[in-house]
Give the backbone structure.
Amino acid sequence: MKKIWMAMGLCLVVILTGCSDKAKQNSEVINIENEELAIKSGIDIFGEVKVASIKEIVIDFPGIVEKIHIKDGQKIKKGDLIMTFNFDEYQTNIMKKQNEIELYDAQLKKLRQNINPLSHEVSRLKKELDIKQGYISGDKDPEVKALERNLEMTHTDIEILQKEYEANKEIFDIGGISAKELEDAKQRLIGKEKEKKDLLMAIEKLKTNRVLEVNQLLSGLKNNEAQLTNTDKQNEISVLELESRLKIAQIDLETMKNKLSKSYIKENSIIADIDNLIVYDLECYEGTQVGKGEGAIIKMMDENTLFISVDIPEEFISRVDIGNEALIMPYADKANAIKGKVIRLAQRAIKQNGETIIKADIAIDGEKGILKPGLTVDVTIYE
């Protein structure tokens, strides 16, 4: 029995020795990495842990906070419940707007059944007339514009051909080219000038036709309107008014629904829509009425975007570049240094506490350890 206990004791010693050696090896790896950095020359400065991204919860529709499920400073993960709302009144207003749209639709359908077919023709003529008159008064006719672009290119071609003809003429005078070659150059110029003339005529003709079209539309509109009764005209006006109201109501409804279509709104609750959020500014209480333009009711830091902000004295700025390695040592645990890298250098210096400094940001490599927003750290930046 004594031998068995001695054997078990021996095994335990071996196991504990193995674990101790493994922990020692891991510690040595970390220390070796940090020692390798320490061998390099660097500058020692203070830094502060900050976050690059802030999540704000804004409620832009009326509601009442029923229950708050988180506390200031609490860390939450995606899907966690933040607070519960009562916005029954807002949902009722959405239903009312939907009913309003349905009513407008029904009224329009009824009115359109009683509209004189001539009213449709009058509406069509008015729309076409507006377009054609815009072509004339606003110089926006697409066909004219296309011809004018061709005319501009033709002008350019004529200038080139004119210079080419004059150059060929000089060469011909000294016997450099034949009479046929000179004549060919002349005919090319004449052909392009004729093309220009044809384009000018086509533009003028098109503009004249537009005037004739407008006059015909005015005549047709006058004849059709003369055949409409006052009731027909009133129905047409009513249709236009209802169509306008319907469009506005549809836009209002879409806007109201979009206010509920936020990644952090689920049914009647506010939830965290990403992981690792830290609540730091709670601007409401249970029973608070929200949605009155008060801005963000909750602000949260995105712990995924932690970085170190440092102030580099001006005498050291020439020794720091983007990409330089850094060692971050939290005041709370200086034995566990964390590696980092310079990712941003401000492009201007500022005065701070009587000293000229340059702001810089350091990214944190790997695990962030005990780093929390607002903590102070020692930082060594290596050249």
